[in-house]
Write a structure and sequence with these properties.
Blueprint: H1 28-33, H2 38-46, H3 60-73, H4 77-86, H5 88-94, H6 109-135, H7 159-172, E1 187-194, H8 204-225, H9 238-249, H10 256-286, H11 295-317, E2 336-338, E3 347-349, E4 352-358, E5 361-368, H12 378-389, E6 395-397, H13 405-413, E7 417-419, H14 431-442, H15 445-456, H16 468-494, H17 497-525, H18 529-541
Parallel strand pairs: 1-6, 6-7
Antiparallel strand pairs: 1-4, 2-3, 4-5
Length: 542
């Protein structure tokens, strides 16, 4: 049987909607709207705006909501505005009083907001959401049995020194807002990753070709601006350079000698063009003519000169490393980051992120385009944990690069368990201790899952922002969207806790009666140990 509705019968005026009375309270946008601390987050925007100058701004509530929608759905600026325009639940989330068919604002306003907030503002918004989740008991840092174990006593040379050391311990364990000692709670998982930028894979020959094309456009612009200054157009040998580059790039397998020869030719062509540009600029200055370049062209000229200097230095010294190496003309702040993973992941191009995870909530503690040692920031991460929650973590889980002697000593002084291999000779451990340590250290993989979720689901696999401040803000907004979705999931899961508790209360009398029944049967049959073991196994399976 075939069912088909003719197109002539479909009219917009006859289309009925289920939203005449109310929206569904179970929709994800409705649930997340009640969890966001809107008023506290709006104050972050107010710090970067003027209350008495300028035209009235768009409602900050709407701007903040659209910003979250963008990163939750992983959309571009234009598609985000269209999504909010078409989705009535998204309009409720952003703070509109009723459904409207007009765009909420122009898409490029989101870029302006990222510039204005920068990394500090985006990180502050994420911290406000984490604080709201902690106040709502979505972050449950339960006490561990090891928390009650006091740190080892220092050697007592005399009584006064022992008393001073004990008082120092007590004062360091006190909460700044209370006079009672606060034990360590929760787990802090730290790790580092790289968020790749949206740039072509940089090779020396390709980068030099890009610089050569830019210098050719600069020469053409200077010549066309005033032809009377030059009797004829300066030669650039662009046809010959393009022909040689294409013949080189089409080769599937290139030897080191061929690559070095191609880089040398690219340097020669670029050197000739830069020398021509310098002569043309000198002639303009001598003729009292202004330079017709815009700020963007002047910036590109400076970048090309720096790339030529770096490539010439590496080619002359036959090495592959230089300080502050530029790998992209359009994003000169991007640096190559060595990851040491081998294969295609050995070197990545983008900002390096040092992040921390606790109870599923992620925070970017350090973001830098230059490579850094994440072990130097572990103490700051732990201190930040205490500043947010009021106590130190009971355990820190991290990769072996974090476990320097300085970090181990600092954590031990604060009775924080180190989730790594202990220093010194290997001591004999029981099977139980090995299994316990293995399960504890395996929890570190949670941060790897968060990185994978951010890259595959929320767009951190390839960052399309071009400015360094907007790129750092984009990363913090991605973690903000992840935390909001996780926060809503945790609140939804708490609704099932009373049901589980009730089921447990009903199950306990049944299990007690079953124990009595099995004991009676074993006594009546005078069961042997083997038979009694089978009865116990049957009870567990039940």
């Amino acid at each position: 049987m075939i069912v088909y509705t003719p197109a002539a019968t479909r009219k917009l005026s006859l289309f009925s909607t289920p939203f005449d009375n109310h929206l569904s309270a179970h929709n994800r946008w409705v649930r997340m709207e009640s969890l966001v601390p809107w008023d506290e987050m709006a104050k972050v925007f107010l710090n970067s705006m003027s209350a008495g100058q300028g035209r009235p701004s768009v409602d900050l509530r709407i701007v903040l909501g659209v910003l979250m929608v963008k990163h939750i759905e992983d959309l571009s600026e234009e598609r985000t505005i269209e999504y909010v325009q078409e989705n009535i639940y998204a309009q409720f989330f952003v703070g509109l009083s009723s459904f409207q068919t007009q765009p909420v604002f122009v898409p490029h306003l989101l870029v302006t907001i990222r510039k204005r907030l920068s990394e500090a503002g985006a990180r502050q918004l994420n911290d406000l959401l984490i604080s709201a989740a902690a106040d709502a008991k979505a972050i449950k840092h339960r006490k561990k049995p090891s928390d009650k174990t006091p740190p080892p006593e220092p050697p007592k040379s005399d009584g006064s020194q022992a008393i001073d050391n004990e008082s120092a311990k007590t004062s360091s364990a006190l909460d700044p807002k209370s006079t009672t000692p606060v034990s360590n709670r929760g787990d802090l998982i730290v790790d580092a990753t790289v968020a790749p930028a949206h740039i072509a894979y940089p090779t020396d020959s390709k980068l030099l070709r890009r610089c050569r094309l830019i210098t050719e456009r600069l020469i053409d612009g200077l010549y066309e601006n005033d032809r009377s200054l030059w009797p004829r157009k300066p030669r650039t040998y662009r046809r010959e350079a393009n022909k040689r580059y294409l013949s080189f790039s089409k080769k599937r397998r290139k030897t080191k000698k061929e690559i070095r020869r191609a880089v040398g030719r690219g340097l020669n062509y670029l050197r000739r063009n830069l020398k021509t540009i310098t002569a043309m600029l000198d002639l303009l200055e001598a003729s009292d003519e202004p330079c017709p370049w815009s700020f963007a062209l002047r910036r590109q000229y400076w970048i090309v000169q720096e790339i030529y200097r770096q490539q010439k230095e590496m080619h002359r010294d036959r090495r592959r490393r230089v300080n502050n190496r530029i790998v992209s003309v359009h994003q000169p702040h991007v640096r190559p980051i060595k990851r040491g993973k081998g294969g295609g992941k050995n070197t990545e191009f983008g900002p390096k992120i040092n992040a921390s995870v606790t109870e599923g909530f992620t925070r970017a503690d350090q973001i830098d385009f230059n490579a850094f040692n994440e072990a130097n920031h572990l103490i700051a991460q732990v201190e930040g944990y205490k500043a947010r929650f009021g106590y130190y973590p009971s355990r820190v889980l991290a990769d072996k690069i974090y476990w320097t002697r300085e970090n181990r000593k600092w954590l031990k002084e604060r009775n924080i368990h180190v989730g790594g291999v202990p220093l010194g000779p290997k001591r004999k451990r029981s099977k139980y201790e090995k299994e316990r340590d293995r399960k504890r250290n395996n929890r570190r993989s949670e941060v790897e899952g968060k990185f994978g979720e951010a890259k595959e689901r929320y767009g951190m696999k390839e960052l399309y922002t071009r400015l360094p401040q907007t790129t750092k803000a984009e990363i913090s907004f991605i973690f903000l969207a992840m935390n909001l979705v996780h926060y809503a999931r945790e609140v939804a899961n708490r609704c099932f806790e009373p049901v589980l508790i009730t089921c447990g209360a009903l199950q306990r009398p049944i299990m007690d009666k079953l124990d009595n029944y099995l004991n009676a049967v074993a006594w009546m049959l005078c069961a042997e140990p083997k038979t009694a073991t089978h009865l116990a196994v049957g009870r567990r399976n039940f």
